[in-house]
Fold Flavin reductase (DIM6/NTAB) family NADH-FMN oxidoreductase RutF.
Amino acid sequence: MIHDDLHSYEPRGGHGLPHDPFNAIVGPRPIGWVSTRSRAGQVNLAPYSFFNAFNYVPPIVGFASIGRKDSLAHIEETGEFVWNLATRPLAEQMNASCAAVPRDVNEFELAGLTPVASQRVAPPRVGESPVAFECKLSQLIQLQAADGQAVDTWLVLGEVVQIHIARSLLVNGIYDTAAGQPILRGGGPADYFALGEKFLMRRPR
Ligand SMILES: Cc1cc2nc3c(=O)[nH]c(=O)nc-3n(C[C@H](O)[C@H](O)[C@H](O)COP(=O)(O)O)c2cc1C
């Protein structure tokens, strides 16, 4: 079937809908739950759904800071961050950690989470999260539009230098994605998803 009844629009001119569908379409997205520590020792935790993995060897993950936020400022100072898996049991705490609070407020305390010392980087990981990646900044890129105009968004890319996985998520040595209960972000002000159907499909030879 070819779709011919389309709502088509130029984003620069507005979407003409009650809600911008963009991030509902590119979804559900994994969440980059990022902990950082400033040079002075201030700890920060915040979720970023413009997040993904970009490379296997070395493993590289990245997230976009829309505007200059505390996480970005800390990473610029120290070159380090930790990615923590946001899970269904930790959904409320993840949400609490996004509150726009002054820079000296520690979101670990705000959300009732336990900071646990990392091995290779200074920012702590979320002790309650079953998976964490310790990361070192590899590239920091300010985004630009097609016309070259600078955008107030920074893409933070980091090499994963240490990985922690709760052994309970390793079934005969295989990481069980569903058992990790990741939460995923949809669109609108409040849409989240949990995992549903899993299906297998091999690449063509
Ligand atoms: C699920 C979720 C996803 C979010 N994704 C992003 C994102 O991709 N980029 C961004 O700049 N802010 C995102 N935010 C908002 C930030 O978490 C929020 O601005 C936070 O206060 C930033 O913290 P900081 O200033 O302490 O670094 C998201 C919030 C939530 C709850």
Notes: The chain has a mean pLDDT of 97. Residues 31, 44, 46-50, 63-66, 69-71, 95, 98, 100, 185 surround flavin mononucleotide (CB under 6 Å).
